[in-house]
Each structure stands twice: as structure tokens, then as C-alpha cells.
């Protein structure tokens, strides 16, 4: 019992009690605070999930969306209800079983998964319930550590005397081979690219920014040469735009060898 109380105290230190008291679904863990969250699509309605906030600034969302059901998804599903759910998820562009297994999404990925029409604005589109009202994350205290982490990265990069710039990168589709552009200007964008690179079965339909298929044309070669280098627009790769690891593009919670090695070296 004493250990449990210690863990609760550790999680409860992230925010003051009055900052969380009117939020719905608050759960304090050992090193995180979890709340109910959601994102609204004008076409599909509310996608409900749970958001975990960590002191490192990391944000993790576990999706619990089930179209037309307020009680959550039961594993005992009749043939008729399974068919209805599968059709509903199919119209949204998702696989039913994939949605059942969704876990640890970034806010940006959850925003896309919800079917939100105006994506890439997750701070305003993902909400929590406070006093019975939907409130955007940007207007809550929940982004406190996320914002501090971003500022810390910026200060660290400036102190090293270098202007950090991650150029755009391309990820190839496992089905059609077409390459899709990923911007790497923020930690969220870097994480989306990192996840895509780590998925051997990544395909066009997984593209996080727009709903596309393999039928969509890829960028022309003449356009691909422009990748956002601040030194030269058509740079093929230099010390100003090619990063070999920093706090913006490496993640302490990721178990891939690249991130594990980076985290170990930083601690050392």
C-alpha cells in the first residue's frame, strides 16, 4: 500500500489538484496523469480516447472510439453488430481490427484517425471535458510540460551555436513504391516520420497529413530536390539540414535501437 501511495504522489505532483478537479476521467499514475479526451469530425462525430501526460513532455493517446456506441467496445460482438462496425470504420478509411488495437498515438495521429476535416491543428482540435464543456488542449494546463520540453530543445540547440534544421524526408509506400514527403519542423512531425520509417509495411493510406491512396501521383522529381535546407534550397544534404540525432527527433520512450542509443549517450 505504501508503494502505491508513493506512485500516486509522484503522478499527482505534475499538476495542482485544482487544475484537474473539473476534468473528466482523471487518473493519476506513477509517472503520468491521464484524462479523457476526444476529437470531433463534422461527418463522423466524436472519437473518444484517453490522453496521458508525462513530465518529459511526451503525450500518448489510446483510442477508444466506437461509432454509434456510448458504452465502449465489447469483445463480445454479434455478427450483425460486427458487420455494422466494420462498415462504419471502412467508410472512415480504417480497418476495424486496426482500430481495436490502436495504442499510444501521438495527438496528431489521433486527430487524423478521428476523421477530423481540418487536420494539423491538434492543439485546437483535440479536446478534454472541463466542467461538462469541450475545451481545446491549447486552453488547458495539460500542455505545460510539452511546451516546456519544446522550449528546452530550442534553448539547447541555440546554446550549441547551431541553427537546427531538419530537412524534409521521404518515405516509400510498401505497396506502390511511391515516395511521400514528411516535414520535420516540430517534435510531433519528427515522431510521425520516425514511426513511418520504423514500419516495414507503411503505405500511402497511412500518410498522416492527408487521406491519400496509391492512386495519387507522387511529387515530381524537380520538386523533390527542394527539401527545406536553410543554406541552399536545392541542397542534397549538408551539416545544416541533416541531423544525426537530437532531442527533437529522438524519443526516450521509443524502444528502437537508434533512440535507445541516443538516450543512453545523453545520460552518459
The CATH C-level name of the largest domain is Alpha Beta
Cα gyration radius (Å): 20 Å
Sheet having the most strands: 6 strands, antiparallel
User: What proportion of the residues is helical, as a percent range?
Assistant: 25-40%
Distance between the termini: 34 Å
CATH topology of the largest domain, by name, is SAND domain
Beta-strand percent range: 15-25%
**What would you call the shape?**
globular
| Mean pLDDT score | 76
H-E string: HHEEEEHHHHEEHEEHHH
Helix count, per DSSP? 10
CATH architecture of the largest domain: Roll
Protein name: Developmental regulator, ULTRAPETALA
Pfam family, one: zf_ULT1
Question: What are the key terms here?
Answer:
alpha+beta; SAND domain; 2 domains; two-stranded antiparallel sheet
Summarize this, please?
Pfam families: SAND_ULT1 (PF23292), zf_ULT1 (PF23293). The protein is of the alpha+beta class.
